[in-house]
Design a protein that fits this description.
The protein is mainly β. The protein folds into two domains: about 15-70, no CATH class; about 75-130, no CATH class. The chain contains two helices and nine strands, in the order E-E-E-E-H-E-E-E-H-E-E. The strands form two sheets. A five-stranded antiparallel beta sheet has the order 4-3-2-1-5, with no helix packed on it. Strands 7-6-9-8 form a four-stranded antiparallel beta sheet.
Length: about 140
């Protein structure tokens, strides 16, 4: 089965394959080989891509050109919270607030209900990942 090519559109957000945001200026530029015109954030210049998002430049090829391929932005998940780490070396639970983490400093051991797991650390963490990472 062949993959349907992605066609770059003005109503979506894009970034390069290595994660740099790209502002799409138009998708109907004058050159039919590279109708997508945009700018990689921080570059200060216009760049060109094919309708499928492949970077287009006569002097750029190989790995660098591959990293400049356009991909649709995936929503980011950004959270701050607290990890309770428990004494069984297997259990770590994320809580949205320190207060909630403190209330849950003792939890039942699901493998042995007669035991209680004791929190041995509570660590503040910041999560910043793309939706779907790690699945």
């Amino acid at each position: 089965m062949t993959e349907t090519p992605v066609i770059i559109s003005m109503d979506k957000q894009y970034e390069t394959l290595d994660g740099d945001p790209v502002r799409i200026i138009c998708v109907d530029g004058p050159n039919p080989d590279c109708p997508v015109i945009g700018s990689v954030e921080g570059s200060g210049c216009a760049d060109f891509w094919t309708a499928e998002g492949e970077f287009y430049h006569a002097e750029v090829e190989g790995e660098y050109a591959r990293l400049l391929k356009l991909v649709e932005c995936v929503p980011r998940i950004q959270r701050k919270g607290y990890l309770n780490i428990f004494d069984d070396s297997k259990t770590t639970i994320f809580y949205a607030s320190k207060e909630l983490a403190d209330k849950c400093h003792l939890i039942p051991n699901l493998e042995n209900r007669s035991e209680t797991l004791i929190r041995i650390a509570c660590v503040e963490v910041e999560i910043d990942c793309r939706e779907g990472d790690g699945l």
